Amino acid sequence: MADDSRAADVGARYAQALFELAKDTGQATAVEADLKSLKTMCAESADLRALLASPAFSAEAKGAGLAAIAKAAGFSATTVKFLGLLAANRRPSALPAVIAVFERLAAEDRGAISAEVVTALPLTDAQSKSLAAALRAALGKDPEIETRVDPAILGGVKVRVGSRLYDASLKSRLNSLKFSLKRA
Hints:
Blueprint: H1 2-24, H2 28-44, H3 46-53, H4 59-73, H5 77-88, H6 95-110, E1 112-119, H7 125-139, E2 142-149, E3 156-161, E4 164-169, H8 170-183
Parallel strand pairs: 1-2
Antiparallel strand pairs: 1-3, 3-4
């Protein structure tokens, strides 16, 4: 657990530095797009996740892998240099935390707020619009919604906005009921 916390702290510092650099150079939008692409790549590739997290790969190997990905994807020069710095400083495992914090900083800068929504089934367009309207009304800001499907929640929805989690999933309701029955 301490390692996750340390990676998040390191990721937050790197993300802050990258955001300030990208903003100063007018590259914030391009870097954000690059990081979103990289986030998708990480989610889809077990090999990339292993490369970033495994101590079996040297800093040079991680740097070469990230450089190849950045070149193939056509990332901006700022993103390419940042990924090289991250590898040289032996911090590629902090990349998911860097991406999460950078996205939050970029959203705040635009006056929006990031929200992660987890559902058991994919949302329809009407459900997505309704959820966005409800979040806009509750938060007072335009939400930038990232959706994820997790059948393990059985039904309902989980919404994470910043450090707050609104859990209206069927799984949490069943767990609550089970706990209540055990106490009775």
